[in-house]
Amino acid sequence: MSLTDTLNDTLNDTLNAIELADKNFMGEAQKRSDNLTKPSGSLGRLEELANIVCGIKRTLKPKTENKIIFTLAADHGVAEEGVSAFPQEVTKEMISNFVNGRAGVNVLARHVNAKVVVADLGVKGEILSSGVVIKKIAHGSKNFTKGSAMTREQAIKSIEYGIELVDEEMNNGAIDIAGTGDMGIANTTPSSAVVAAITGADAGKITGRGTGINNEIFNNKIRVIKKGLNLNKPNPDDAIDVLSKVGGFEIGGIAGVILGCAKNKIPVVIDGFISGAGALIAYKLNPLTKDYIIASHQSVEPGHKILLDYIGLKPLLNLNLRLGEGTGSALGINLVEASCKILNEMATFEEADVSKKIN
Amino acid sequence: MSLTDTLNDTLNDTLNAIELADKNFMGEAQKRSDNLTKPSGSLGRLEELANIVCGIKRTLKPKTENKIIFTLAADHGVAEEGVSAFPQEVTKEMISNFVNGRAGVNVLARHVNAKVVVADLGVKGEILSSGVVIKKIAHGSKNFTKGSAMTREQAIKSIEYGIELVDEEMNNGAIDIAGTGDMGIANTTPSSAVVAAITGADAGKITGRGTGINNEIFNNKIRVIKKGLNLNKPNPDDAIDVLSKVGGFEIGGIAGVILGCAKNKIPVVIDGFISGAGALIAYKLNPLTKDYIIASHQSVEPGHKILLDYIGLKPLLNLNLRLGEGTGSALGINLVEASCKILNEMATFEEADVSKKIN
């Protein structure tokens, strides 16, 4: 039985629809960049970013007008093991903060002129606000130290909900560039477990201090992750198995958003560690997805570098961020937009009548 | 005779007016930041940036509305030694490109909603455009392999012109945050010489490939810098002596802009290597200036890290930029603005009714 035999249509169709970015457009974009009034290559990674976007969108005039950050929320049964510095109700409380536009991601999204789409993939309790997209799978995942975090069907559903979020926004208008973000108390714990399961790296090397835990909780957190991995034995070659056994609903949803963006040929700027765990799931399901992912920043969480290296992504920023929500995505989207404006707005040597390089 | 005895009033008054940033406001800003709806410290360097701006401006509600990038241009006699990949007329040609809004700095400044003030400190030839502030000291500096690049009076004048640029813009309205940038074919050569003279580092370790020179020109460039240093013997403890013997007019102007910002309590985001050489001059003239300088990015030029370490500055971005003009400053200003918006716009735990950390 192949892996994809067990997947339903939405996910299967998405995985099959993802194509490589177009290398010809990337090359043509660099040629245009080389003819702009600056030394060739002098805008470094901004030039690379513009090339990537041109390759994704198959154009030399990439638009970045419609920017959406998908902030996905869920709760985690493993929170009852005392792995977080914050109480579980903060997940739900923060959703109100998002809707009111007063959380970190709202401020940074406004700053870069991006819209925030907040979705409930599995928050404990009912979310009544009309400002939240409800795609709830359950009232939190289960405690993975006592069994699977979710069923295989729920894992697939969480990914499909992420794909749907992208498709729905595309139907509402357009997405020129997307970002991912997360909210879920304790979610660095399942993210660490996912990264350990897939990369094979030791949980002790992956695990960080999340929202800011002390040594005692930190050591407990590592024990909890190891216990979950030993009990559930996720199959590293089956990303759905990993997600269902030790993951979380928003992690699956983020994987889905990334796959949905790849299918729709939209560059997707991922945030930090939790978004990275989602990206790892998406990448394992279809490695071509990598062409569509831009890593916004290097998180303080030690496992983040491990997963980015595994996929082969190099983060744009290193500002010691560890908030999540999509805050890093907002800053990354801004750099991608800057890179596209360079390509679209700068004069060529001919247009500006500027002399070229001598040798 | 003390150093300052030889300085005239504008420079002396400015140096004497510079105060340390206010540590109380920095501490109060961090306290406010710790009470915003996020784990304490989770926005990393964004939190630090907001603290710095609050310390500079003596406020907990820092404004970043009026953003100005000062792009200073000049030519360099040492260009005749064949140290650049581009012909000297590009300096003047690029000024038209700036005025037309089609150069890299214009695109990125528009992206971050900053104004670009272009000033001619010593371009070869007449600049006729009304869009350029003319503060011309000479039609290019002299070739420092044959004597001093400029007189001591000219060096002081270049710094004072930079101070004037800031004062004039303050009189025109306000500057909430400033950036620096440069244009001047061959100007990585005098910048390398300035950094070598002041830091004592070897010219071979400082010198880079500027706009993109081949091995032969690169080796010649190092020889030229060493020759200039050996001939002129700049006094590392006298920044004006260094600037006059091996510097350039825009480098002095940038030092002046930085001093002018420090005097006016304006955070100043410096660009790459040439702006860094200017910052080094400003820092040597008054080390308190350091409190007002924010390093936007780590340039590809190897001497940049050496000078940033010397001053004690840690760059925000590392995107392999080496264009100059203020392009990196624009991106850095955007991050500083983001950091201030976080402080101004995010809800506190109380305001949002979000539960606090347990332990």
From TrEMBL, chains A, B:
Under the heading InterPro entries, the entry gives:
Nict_dMeBzImd_PRibTrfase, Nict_dMeBzImd_PRibTrfase_bact, Nict_dMeBzImd_PRibTrfase_N, Nict_dMeBzImd_PRibTrfase_sf
- Coiled-coil stretches noted in the UniProt entry, renumbered to this chain: none
> Which is one GO molecular function term here?
nicotinate-nucleotide-dimethylbenzimidazole phosphoribosyltransferase activity
List the catalytic activities from the record.
5,6-dimethylbenzimidazole + nicotinate beta-D-ribonucleotide = alpha-ribazole 5'-phosphate + nicotinate + H(+)
Kindly tell me the pathway this chain contributes to. Nucleoside biosynthesis; alpha-ribazole biosynthesis; alpha-ribazole from 5,6-dimethylbenzimidazole: step 1/2
Keywords, comma-separated and alphabetical: Cobalamin biosynthesis, Glycosyltransferase, Transferase
- CDD domains (alphabetical): DMB-PRT_CobT
Gene Ontology process terms (BP): cobalamin biosynthetic process
Q: Any idea of its EC number?
A: 2.4.2.21
Family designation: Belongs to the CobT family.
Any idea what this protein is called? Nicotinate-nucleotide--dimethylbenzimidazole phosphoribosyltransferase
Per the UniProt record, the source organism is Candidatus Altarchaeum hamiconexum
